[in-house]
Each structure stands twice: as structure tokens, then as C-alpha cells.
Automatic annotation (TrEMBL):
Cited SUPFAM superfamilies: alpha/beta-Hydrolases (SSF53474)
Alphabetized Gene3D superfamilies for the sequence: alpha/beta hydrolase
Protein name in the entry: AB hydrolase-1 domain-containing protein
Alphabetical list of InterPro entries matching this protein: AB_hydrolase, AB_hydrolase_1, AB_hydrolase_fold, Epox_hydrolase-like
Every AB hydrolase-1 domain range: 26-253
Transmembrane feature ranges: none
Biological processes annotated in GO: glycerolipid catabolic process
GO molecular function, one term: triacylglycerol lipase activity
Length: 275
């Protein structure tokens, strides 16, 4: 773990990088998660690229907060983080809340962004599709649950039902990560309120970046129509829909996710080189 000071607070982060990375890649985590959830992906992408995964403010090993904040505030944190580490421009990979932060980062600080990978996320706004029953259950698990058990139940509800049988180790990893980085009820509520206020729907046409949208066909937390709205709203965006996949494509379809991510990153660099 490393830390960097940005303004009045510090962010914790993981960095994996070869001696001569091809580009910078920033990974942004989801509601209730921390940088640890990206670890297996960061380890792989970090073999070719400078892969950076920070904890959002108020989560993981980053400084805690007591005041309310917005997704735009988290995007400004990400901008300051990239600047402080001389890691811009960067390809930005965000899942769920992380994808919302990525959108605001690209809108507010376009000079820092090289491309967007928006995973299981939404532009928000009044046209959003409500979460399904399993998705709502994952959001509102009992606060008194032990952190590891809460993570297990959340993953079971957010993912395709077959994941537990196919990859029981994923649940052990999720539980271990949650026990290392338990999130307080107050922190979760602050994040959740930020998510509820997120809306970039009217601004999507102004995002002129290479973009890859990855969404699970059976996502009950942020249903597929919201991913389709992103793909429709961002000119030239690529769309990958994973069948029989819920809200955690990087876990449920890890190899496919890595293949698509590597292909997008390499393609983005090739396009820049041939301009």
C-alpha cells in the first residue's frame, strides 16, 4: 500500500507497473468496495501498463470523512490523484460507482483522460431503470452482519446465481477483502447518497473519448438498459454485453473481461499512433 496527499486528505492506493509501461490505467471501485476488489485485474494489467487503484475518500485505507460529498467530489479526488502521481493522461476503468466517477472525471478534467472503460454502471438521471429485487436486497443488507458475511451475501445477490458453484474462491476473496476494509454504516450512507444524486445523462454527447461499455445481461443492481443508454450517449462507444452475468463482470467473467480490456487498451494506443 502507498499513500498520496491531495489537498486536505490522503488517498491510499495500489500500484503495479513494469519498468517501461505502455500507458497509465486508473481503476475506480464500486459502492461499498475498495481497491482490493481490483487486485487480480491490476496484477494482470500491471504487467504491461502502470496500473493504479486508489481507495476513494472515506473507504479502505484512505482518510475518513464526516461531511457529505458528491460523485463529482470523488472525480476531483481522482484528478488530483493522477496529477500528484504524474499519471495522466490515463485510461480510466470504473465499475458501478467507479464508472460514475469516471464519467465525471472525463467531463470535469478531460485533459487527464485517454479513454473510458465503464463497467456495470449508469449515466443516472430520471430515465434510469430501477434495480431488481436481488439488486435492492444487495444494497440494503442488515447493518449488523459481520463484514465478511455481508460481502459474501452481497456478491451472491449481485452476481449470476451460478457463480458460487463455478467459483467459490471468489466469495472467500470478497470476504477477506471486506474484513480487511470493513465499511462503516455512516460511510456507506454517504457513498449511497452520492450515487443517488449522480446524473450525467445530458452531458454524455460531450464525452469525446474512446469508450468501452461492459455490462452483464442479468445485472439486477444496475440493469442492462442503463448500460445501453451509456453506449447510445457516447459517440463511437464499443459495447460488450456478457450473457448470464450480473453486476460483477470482472469476477464472473474474469478472462473475458481481461481479454476485452487488453484489446481496448492496445487498440486505443494503436489509434493514437496512427493518427
Amino acid at each position: 500500500m502507498k499513500t498520496v496527499r491531495i489537498g486536505s486528505h490522503s488517498l491510499a492506493y495500489t500500484e503495479v507497473s513494469p519498468p517501461h509501461p505502455r500507458a497509465n490505467v486508473l481503476f475506480l471501485s464500486w459502492l461499498g468496495g475498495s481497491r482490493l476488489g481490483w487486485s487480480s485485474i491490476v496484477d494482470e494489467i500491471g504487467q504491461e501498463y502502470r496500473a493504479l487503484a486508489p481507495d476513494h475518500r472515506d473507504t479502505g485505507d484512505s482518510d475518513t470523512f464526516s461531511d457529505a460529498y458528491t460523485v463529482a467530489d470523488l472525480a476531483d479526488d481522482a484528478a488530483a490523484f493522477l496529477t500528484a502521481l504524474d499519471a495522466a493522461p490515463a485510461f480510466v476503468v470504473g465499475l458501478s460507482l467507479g464508472g460514475m466517477v469516471a464519467q465525471h472525471l472525463a467531463l470535469r478534467h478531460p485533459e487527464l483522460v485517454r479513454g473510458l472503460v465503464l463497467v456495470a454502471t449508469t449515466p443516472g438521471g430520471p430515465a434510469s431503470t430501477p434495480a431488481g429485487e436481488r439488486g435492492r436486497a444487495a444494497l440494503f443488507l442488515p447493518a449488523e452482519l459481520e463484514a465478511g458475511e455481508r460481502a459474501r451475501q452481497a456478491l451472491a445477490l449481485m452476481s449470476e446465481a451460478s457463480l458460487l458453484e463455478r467459483d467459490p474462491a471468489a466469495f472467500e476473496v470478497a470476504a477477506a477483502n471486506a474484513r480487511r476494509h470493513p465499511q462503516s454504516t455512516a460511510s456507506y450512507k454517504r457513498q449511497f447518497r452520492a450515487v443517488r444524486a449522480h446524473d450525467t445523462s445530458a452531458a454524455l454527447p460531450s464525452l469525446h473519448f474512446p469508450a468501452l461499455i461492459i455490462h452483464g445481461e442479468t445485472d439486477e443492481l444496475i440493469p442492462l438498459p442503463d448500460g445501453l443508454r451509456l453506449a447510445d450517449g457516447i459517440s463511437g462507444a464499443q459495447l460488450r454485453i456478457y450473457p448470464h452475468t450480473g453486476h460483477m463482470p470482472h469476477i464472473e467473467r474474469r478472462e473475458e473481461f481481461l481479454t476485452d480490456l487488453r484489446g481496448f487498451l492496445a487498440g486505443g494506443l494503436l489509434e493514437e499512433h496512427t493518427r
